[in-house]
Amino acid sequence: DWRGAGIAVMTRLPRCSMRRVELGFDWMPAIELVFPGEAEKPPFSALFVHTFSPKINDPQRTPQRDVQLEWIGKWSREQSGKALIMGDFNITPWSPAYGALLREYRLFDSTDYRGFYPSWPASLGWLGIPIDQAIVVVRVDAGLLGL
Q1: Alpha-carbon distance 64 to 80, whole Å?
Q2: Has this prediction a pTM greater than 0.90?
Q3: Which tens digits make up the pLDDT trace of 97-122?
Q4: How far apart (Å, rounded) are the C-alpha atoms in residues 92 and 139?
């Protein structure tokens, strides 16, 4: 049941592992890459997502996207070290659901204090809205403060 979205990840790093991650709906998966640690560097995880986009003619898509956000948050809690979540979230930083994700799971928006960079629609350039996000997962309690 393809609904007009896809995801692909390419990397030049040879020793990473990749797996498909379900975000509540098997037809809209995410991709997880785990980069192995070296010497004094711990492993690093990255989750690449493409969540449902809201549609006026399909009112189920916004709640489905919010379910995906919850699964993204749960994935972030499973990480024991540094991690990154990025992709087409189909949500602006001003959305209550996005703010709730950041607060509930103690995540950091990579644009904090750096400004917003519109990504949709591309044809509007700087007049567009930022719906593609990058979130940093930091376990302060584990002493991993480097962003």
Answers
A1: 27
A2: no
A3: 999 999 999 998 888 777 778 888 88
A4: 24
